[in-house]
Structure formats: structure tokens, C-alpha cells
Design brief:
single chain, alpha/beta, Rossmann fold, 2 domains, 8-stranded mixed β-sheet, 6-stranded parallel β-sheet, 14 helices
Length: 408
Amino acid sequence: MQTDGLSGKHILLIISGGIAAYKSLDLIRRLKERGAGVRCVLTAGGAQFVTPLSVAALSEEAVFQDLFSLKDESEMGHIRLSREADVLVVAPASADLMAKMAAGLADDLASTILLATDKPVLFAPAMNTRMWDHPATRRNFQTLLDDGLTAIGPGQGDLACGEVGAGRMSEPLEIVAAIEALIGDAAPELPLQGRKAIVTSGPTHEAIDPVRYLANRSSGKQGHAIAGALARLGAEVVLVAGPNNLADPGGVTVRAIESAAQMLAACEAALPADIVVCAAAVADWRVAGEAQQKMKKDGSGQPPALALVENPDILKTISHLNGGRPELVIGFAAETEKVVQHAQSKLTRKGCDWIVANDVGAGTGVMGGDDNTVHLITAQGVEDWPTMAKDAVAVTLAERIADHFGSE
């Protein structure tokens, strides 16, 4: 779902060093989709993470890197780069570049342009959470705000260093929305504005006794990412989440649960909704009678007999609501073989509208990992999506959902 609020606008994108620089490539694509022209300045640090060739190919413009380039300065000097832009966007904005901006330093092309500009500047911080929390970074951040610059983020979540906390660069679509708010012509409503979505995420824990439980191997990364992506497109989102170690997505109402029964009850309580995405890995069975005390070995060498009963089928229940059924009900199919075939069968059996299928067999690394390869199964056929980060899968699915409602 694309808008024309940036059509004809000229964006100067400064890409500084940090693993989040990979997101800048998608940001370029999103801006181009909306009719904006994008020129890019790549710092020495940024060039360690993305190549000038990839940036040039996506922007369809030359990439500028060197303050002392005789060719660049004669044909497109740093002053002209700034003056011909409607807005300067720094994404990612590293701690180092933020410090230079706050101090007024100008020892490379990016910092010189930023010191010389009289145009609006939007910056998206991205760094390790300890760097973000350092008093010097916070002082620099506040100085830039006091100087009239506009910030977006950083967000909370998993960081490249393996830590969890603040420091994630805002997602490309969030940055696009911020640019539209800053300079866009009659910034349009977000495509899912006025829609309500329920997303389930993570595993469920089915108690055996006070210290043991049955569960699936799910981190909740995909479901949480989907909830955040839908919220960024304007949806009111309720995230019903099983036990996880993830930060809550921004702009989302979270309902924390443990068991499948609790998850179903929370989903039913959140209705009515326009969209339901059942991304959680719900345990299929629970113990018929939870022991009230820790089960002990009896010396016989025999394990205790556990009688299992089926858990409620959340996807099927919501798909077959007689009244108030959501317009779009989406399930997930985590399979270890015949992925598409089993997913197509599940689509019919559950009565939902779409199924997102993926291979979670041994060696795929999907369960708990950061990447996913999915197939979207609908009544119209099968869409095979390339392997992407789970955040990118979430954005793609959210846009697909927005397109569904936009075509009505």
C-alpha cells in the first residue's frame, strides 16, 4: 500500500556505521516507491556494512563518500547536496556521528553537510543499549533535539550484540512515516487506520506439576514482529503472548498468558476485530490432571503415566465464529515435511482465510532464529517468499494485509 505524500520530494540519506545500515537499503526502496528522489552519503563506517554499489543500484544515483573528492566537489559539492534536498535523513545515526553533530564537528563529508545545512534533519539512532544509555550519548541526543532536529527511535528489542534493550533503529516504514509527517504533502492516513488486529505469539506452557510443563520451541520473534508491523501501519493491535523474553512492540496492547486455554480466552475477550493472526506455537495437548505437588521418582525406574487431552483449537474456533467473525483470519503452519501440502490441508480443515507456512525441521534454525522462509497459502494459490529476516517477513505480511483491505 503506497502513498504519494513524498512524490517529487528530494531526500538526502546519510548512512553511518552500524549493523542497522542494512535497513537503509530497504528504506531507499520504500522512499523510491513513494516517488521520492534519494541521494545517499555513505560514511567510512557505513561502507563497512553496505556497499556503495548496492546503495547506488537502489537509489539510482551516485553515492557520495569523500569530502576531498575533486570530482564530487566539482560536480556536486557538499553545499549543493544539502541545498537540493528537502530533508536530510541520518539512518542509522551512530553514537559517533551523533557526537559530531552535537559538537559541530566537520571532519568528513557527512558531518560537514549536516553542519552546513538549513534543511530539516531527521535522525534515527542505532547502537548497543549500553552506548545508548551512556550519559554522553543522552546529552548529545538532547542537544540535537534542542537544536531543532527531529529524532525517531531508537526502539526496544534484540540487538546485534546479543543483548536486549533500547538501541534498535526504527523500521524503514516508521522512518518513511516520520519523513512524511515532517515534509510530506497532506500526509495520508496509514492504510490500516481504523482496523483492529489480534496477534498471538510465542509458545504456550501446559503445566504437568508446579515445576514442569509441556511446550513448543517458539521464541515469539515472528509473532511480535507481526504485531509491531501492523501497528506501524495504523492498526489497533492486541498481542496475546505466551511466555517469552522479548521486549513488547511499540504501540501494541499486550496480554500475557501461559496456557492455550488462557490464550483462547484472551483472544475472545479482545474481539471484535478485523484481523486475527494466529502466529503462536500452541501446544496441541495438555495433561488431563495437573499434579498439585512436584511429581517424585518412586524408585521403580518407571516414569509416571501422563494422560493427555487436546487443547482448544484457537485458529479453528475463531475461523468458525457464527457472529462477529473477523474479516481476515490468518494461521501459521510450522511443518517439518511436505510444508505446502500440509498447509493447504490445514487451510481447508481450519476454515481460515490464509496460512503462512514454514519449514521448522532440524537444521533450519527457524525456531528461535532470526530468519524465516515462508509460503503464503490463500484460496488463490501459493506465494513463495524468499528467505528474509523475521522483521522483514512481518513487514511483508502486514503490507499484504493492508493491500487486502485496500482493494475492497
